């Protein structure tokens, strides 16, 4: 018989509004005690406002072996990335347009 | 309110926490699970922290000796803890039952102390009660889990309760010189019984109906267990002169 208790993955929120981050796992007989243990192990030395514990078996995840098939496109699909639109330029043009419009009422090429 | 009553009361409060904290720290490195080792060491630290809160009031408000002197340089007969907390830690069932009975006692007692006329006690209870919520959740949770889990856990829990009930009743021993607080003990005990009885019963544990309380701790009458505990706890400090700077 396996004498190990089941594991729970621990997610920790350091400040309201921040996402919960995965910080590790604890062994526990049930979720209530898992939360208790998570506090002592993951909230003692870091600021914390919220903890989640999830039984590890409840998490469905991709495997490292699958990662290439799932996430690595066979052909170039860099058009999906947002890197073609430098934000700084856009913001500057919008600010210039705002000022220009007030003075001249002219058109602007975005 | 006279100083003798306050000093007596505060020593009882402080010594209970110190001795229980010391006993609980004996599980560090030996608890049944790694996570429980960490959790229980945390609880033991809290208790010693609470003891320090009480010793600090004694020192700063009531001109008693420095907390280090009170902790490391008093003899067994000068301590005012209850017998319950000085008993050896036993097995996990024993530790959990003792912890649970004490945590419910603290809750009932703190409710009364929160109404005290002496402001330093009221302020201290405010801080301490917050951590105690967590302690009680932990010990009560274990009572519920172990009371009826397996034949072995049930037997160990029942044996522990049989052994611990008489010293637990000793928690309600009157405090020397402190008539005012001692008068509240009946009320505290009733609140305590109202809390522990349903929890223990639901965990399928039986309370001994005719147990007699074990008194003496509040008057400095202790078992040999306290002497052994103090030998270990005070050994390092006493290896140097009392006024050594650490």
Structural class of chain B, by secondary structure, is mainly alpha
Domains counted in the coordinates of chain A: how many?
1
Strand order of the largest sheet of chain A: 2-1-3
How much is the average pLDDT of chain B? 96
CATH fold call of chain A:
Ubiquitin-like (UB roll)
Largest sheet of chain A: 3 strands, antiparallel
Task: Walk me through this protein's architecture.
The complex is a heterodimer of chains A (110) and B (246). Chain A has helices spanning 31-42, 67-71, 87-104, and strands spanning 7-13, 21-27, 50-55. Chain A is flat, with a radius of gyration of 24 Å. Chain A has a single domain (7-59, 73-103), classed as Ubiquitin-like (UB roll) (Roll). The longest helix of chain A is centred in the C-terminal third of the chain and has 18 residues, at 87-104. Chain A has 110 residues and is an alpha+beta fold. Chain A has a three-stranded antiparallel sheet. Chain B is globular. Chain B has a single domain (3-238), classed as Ferritin (Up-down Bundle). In chain B, 69% of the residues lie in helices and 0% in strands. Chain B is mostly helical. The termini of chain B are far apart. At the A-B interface, helix 1 of A face helix 2 and helix 6 of B.
Concise summary:
The complex is a heterodimer of chains A (110) and B (246). By secondary structure, chain A is α+β, with helices and mostly antiparallel strands.
